[in-house]
């Protein structure tokens, strides 16, 4: 839980109270309990930091007789960013890592990562039984329940076209590699700028997205993966069907659009 909070503060130094609560989704605590942990971490929030209000211990000080007096709110020691842990420079890879076609092979699996859409389609044509993955969060479940072992995996994480997002009056276009976490943010932005008749659909969609697994999983799991997993845990499918959403399917030399 400390690592989850550290990650949130790295990205948002002054998070909202709701964001503090959401970051702990998927974390289990069976000893201390969630309430004291959440109340402790909410002191980092820009919202009301304590349920005690003006009686919060931060608003009190001790006089010479060691009696607590109400005082002006005291601040925490300012964050010294020079003391923040950094990623070990020795482990950093050259800047070209994200722009190169990568191949890794083992005795059981070949892992391929293209960076162009044409290469992705070529690989899928060459290896028709290959599994296209983004976060590959379902690998454990597939192995345990479906006894599935992919011999070739194609990582579509670095194909720019699959990360495209376009919002228009007719709907939202989401690339297949867009993560569920990012999708939730897109829905939040759309809700704040939408008309009333679209509002309920977007709110319902966001409620489902933010309820899938934990925050760490949503950071890597993709919208396309949730749909194509074809499992009863793919909670987005019924709502996508009800709203008349479409999917664009592309293979080598062919593109077609169909209803979910």
Describe the structure using short key phrases.
260 residues, DNA polymerase, domain 1, two-stranded antiparallel ribbon, 2 domains, 4-stranded mixed sheet, globular, 10 helices, Uridine Diphospho-n-acetylenolpyruvylglucosamine Reductase, domain 2
Topology record:
Layout (H helix, E strand, L loop, with lengths): L1 H10 L5 H6 L11 H8 L18 E3 L5 E3 L31 E4 L4 E4 L3 H10 L4 E3 L5 H7 L6 E4 L9 E4 L2 E4 L5 H13 L3 H14 L5 H4 L4 H6 L7 H7 L3 E6 L2 E6 L1
Parallel strand pairs: 4-6, 5-6
Antiparallel strand pairs: 1-2, 3-4, 7-8, 9-10
Helix pairs in contact: 6-7
Shape: globular
Element-level helix/strand string? HHHEEEEHEHEEEHHHHHEE
Q: Predict the CATH topology of the largest domain.
A: Uridine Diphospho-n-acetylenolpyruvylglucosamine Reductase, domain 2
Strand residue content? 15-25%
Mean pLDDT: 80
In the CATH hierarchy, the architecture of the largest domain is 2-Layer Sandwich
Total number of strands? 10
SS summary, helix count: 10
GO molecular function: FAD binding; iron ion binding; oxidoreductase activity
Keywords: FAD, Flavoprotein
Pfam family, one: Fer2_2
Protein name: Xanthine dehydrogenase/oxidase-like isoform X1
């Amino acid at each position: 839980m400390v690592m989850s909070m550290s990650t949130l503060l790295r990205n948002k130094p002054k998070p909202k109270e709701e964001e503090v609560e959401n970051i702990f989704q998927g974390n289990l605590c069976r000893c201390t309990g969630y309430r004291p942990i959440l109340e402790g971490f909410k002191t980092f929030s820009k919202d009301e930091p304590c349920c005690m209000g003006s009686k919060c211990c931060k608003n009190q000080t001790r006089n010479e007789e060691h009696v607590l007096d109400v005082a002006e709110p005291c601040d925490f020691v300012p964050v010294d960013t020079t003391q923040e842990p950094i990623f070990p420079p020795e482990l950093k890879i050259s800047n070209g890592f994200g722009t190169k076609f990568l191949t890794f092979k083992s005795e059981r699996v070949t892992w391929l990562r293209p960076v162009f859409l044409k290469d992705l389609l070529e690989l899928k044509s060459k290896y028709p039984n290959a599994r296209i993955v983004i976060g590959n969060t379902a690998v454990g479940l597939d192995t345990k329940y479906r006894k599935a072992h992919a011999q070739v995996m194609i990582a579509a994480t670095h194909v720019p076209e699959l990360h495209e997002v376009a919002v228009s009056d007719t709907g939202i276009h989401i690339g297949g590699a867009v993560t569920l976490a990012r999708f939730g943010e897109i829905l939040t932005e759309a809700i704040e700028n939408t008309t009333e008749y679209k509002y309920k659909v977007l709110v319902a969609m966001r409620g489902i997205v933010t309820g899938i697994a934990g925050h760490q999983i949503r950071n890597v799991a993709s919208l396309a993966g949730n749909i194509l997993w074809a499992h009863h845990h793919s909670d987005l499918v019924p709502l996508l069907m009800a709203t008349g959403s479409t999917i664009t399917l592309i293979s080598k030399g062919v593109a077609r659009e169909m209803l979910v």
